[in-house]
Amino acid sequence: MGPPEGVSRLEWLRHRRWLGKISRGAERRGPWWAEILSGVALSYPGCCYVEVGVALGSTINVVAPCCREVHGCDVSEAHALPRGARFWHMNSDDFFARYDGAAPQLVFIDGGHTYDQVKRDYENAARILAPGGTIALHATSGRQRYDSRPGRRAADTPEVSRP
Ligand SMILES: C[S@@+](CC[C@H](N)C(=O)[O-])C[C@H]1O[C@@H](n2cnc3c(N)ncnc32)[C@H](O)[C@@H]1O
């Protein structure tokens, strides 16, 4: 099976390689973050899940079956969203400003990786979060591989190391 329309072959191959990697040796590597998020989602009855930055959907597709309501946001087009999920095709600032779903019990922030963007996403997520909810942050190591400019695909963005 080839890449979906709008996804470059390179991006698709990276995605397939990643899925292959996480599906091998689960007993040695410990839980993958999507499995941890699924466990957190299951701890909330009828969980509402928000993912900022869904890319090719590898995480949202794992977590969604554990939730009653699912929202995904990305500046790029979505390709393989779980059935019933609502996709918000816009940047996360606009998403949080317009959000009209249930108060989420779990928010996964994995969109634009600049410090300022992540800080805003965190503050906005905290504003809409249900009482006792959880905010998860990805890629906190300081390496920036994705940027926040609308229309830029993840595979086009440069990898920038911390100076
Ligand atoms: C690391 S990928 C997301 C991976 C996905 N969460 C997963 O686990 O499979 C980052 C995504 O964030 C998107 N993105 C970058 N800046 C954004 C922003 N300001 N608002 C929303 N999405 C953004 C990119 O288009 C890219 O698809």
Features:
163 residues, alpha/beta, Rossmann fold, five-stranded parallel sheet, 6 helices, 5 strands, binds S-adenosylmethionine
Summary of the model, kept short:
It contains 6 helices and 5 strands.
How is this structure best described in words?
- This protein is α/β, with parallel strands linked by helices and 163 residues long.
- The protein has a single domain, classed as 3-Layer(aba) Sandwich (Rossmann fold).
- It is built from 6 helices and 5 strands, in the order αααβαββαβαβ.
- A 5-stranded parallel beta sheet has the order 3-2-1-4-5, sandwiched between helices.
- Helix 5 packs parallel to helix 6.
- The longest helix is centred in the first third of the chain and has 15 residues.
- Bound molecules: S-adenosylmethionine.
CATH superfamily: Vaccinia Virus protein VP39
For this structure, the quaternary state is: single chain
The share of residues in helices is 25-40%
Would you give the CATH topology?
A: Rossmann fold
Largest pleated sheet: 5 strands, parallel
Question: How would you write the strand order of the largest sheet?
Answer: 3-2-1-4-5
Q: Ions, cofactors, ligands: which are bound?
A: S-adenosylmethionine
Question: Residue ranges: pLDDT <50 for 5 or more in a row?
Answer: 147-163
